[in-house]
Predict the 3D structure of the following.
Amino acid sequence: MRSLKLKLFLGILLSVFLVIGLFAGCSGEGGKQTTGDTDKDVEAEKPQETSKGEDDKKKLSSEPVEISYWAATSPENADVDPENVEVFQIVEKKTNVDIKWNHIPKDKEQEQFELMISTDNLPDVIFSDWAEYGPDKAMEDEIIVSIDDIISSHAPNLSKFLDENPDVARDMKTDSGHYFAFPYIKGVEMEDRVTNGLQMRKDWLEDSGLEAPETIDDWYDTLKVFKDQQGATIPFGIDMDRLGFITSAWGFDITNFGVKDKKIIYSPIEPEYKEALETLRKWNDEGLLVMDPEELSKEIVAGTCGAWQAAPASYVEDAKATNPNFDVVAVSNPVKEAGNTPTIFPRWPFSGRGAAVTTKCPKEKYEAVGRWLDYSYGEEGYLLDNFGVKGEQYTMVDGKVLPSDIMYEEEPDGLTTGQYAMRHFRPKNAPGPYLTGNTRSYLHQDALNKDKTSSYKDQATEAWGNGNASHTLPNLYLTAEETRKMDDYSEMFTYVSDMLKKFISGEESLDNFDKYVEEAKRMGAEDVVSIYQSALNRYYAR
């Protein structure tokens, strides 16, 4: 019963904390990859509090500094009042600030943001996705200010983090070279950046005397065995926009832009694209590939699917309930030739979402704003944000974070498990920047499946994380004019997507590929490449 209660609790925690599972993608936000979760206890090794941080604590005034704060609330947190979240209460007390929250529904964010800007009714701090508006433009429009000096003078933990992670530091800068927001960092280690990928039925491989496939030809042979010998009705099921896991064999993500030798590559108009399409068409014609399958998770659990894309150990427990022999193995992205290094597309730790200081924030508040936001980037803040209060939600054993007994209760503190999680942890997509990663998800998964899935996380990290990530598109910020121009090419993107489906399904002959490329170029494909190239050049110049 104890394990069942934990299962129920952690199931909600996982949905609160991280986007995981089947639809976590190959090429997620802004050219980055999304994630999943795994198992195994992990050590909490994160940035240490600095001596300067201790000095700032000594500067605390007797009265809390009031800071107004605007942020959107994601749907899963719609009923959560930040005032009642223990994490926020503790941080306010430790940093001696009084946050005046203005949290709005996520689906109203754009509307309310535009209203706030048009009326010039700005708070001290705005937490938003600045990639959409453009951080340089936000400064030019006198909405937000550069926080270079705030970070260097009042954010020692974040300063240390940026010194240790120069790639993230570059991502956080505008094209003019300024920091514009305290970032929401989704993990910097490769295990945080590539935590979902291709998986196969391990028991089928062993039963058929096969090794996990390495090359694209190996994949074809394996899927044929799954169909002909194991009776798979879906040898390989995947959403069309996740096909980049397979087309990585040709060095590109089929649904996104890429980089090669500092040049923008738009794969749908490249010669290699046709070769990849020929392979996918063959798989489709022979019943080896099923794109956008309905209720794929049910097919996997029912044992009719041989390969798919998901987070580590997804579906294992449910499938084993009806088939004790069910087992999975994470498989590296395929390559064209044996011995080649797989191409991977990890997400970038920072996507543009963060807390920016507005022009309405008095300069005398800068120190307090920096002190408050910086707390989350130190070790103490990291543990509090990700695991709760030490001694209540977790304990430290041999330097590792382990769940406390209350995590096993069915109704902790008389609350539902969801209510308890929301009140004591920083919820997923919470209204504020902080440093996270899949560490906490691994922790909870391990507590749930300690004796069942202890090997999956490490094996998956090895399979998915070792590869060439040089083609991954970094964070690029388009100018207002570039953004306007991109709107003119929406029909081109729709055309390319429609033709991808038609080429694979056989509705359109690949004999017409050259005509398709000509049409895509006529509709502006090369112009789009030029726009992104300009943005990439600015990125390298930051």
The longest strand covers residues 65-73. Confidence is low (pLDDT under 50) at residues 1-56, 439-454. The domain at 51-189+351-388+425-434 is CATH 3.40.190.10 (D-Maltodextrin-Binding Protein; domain 2).
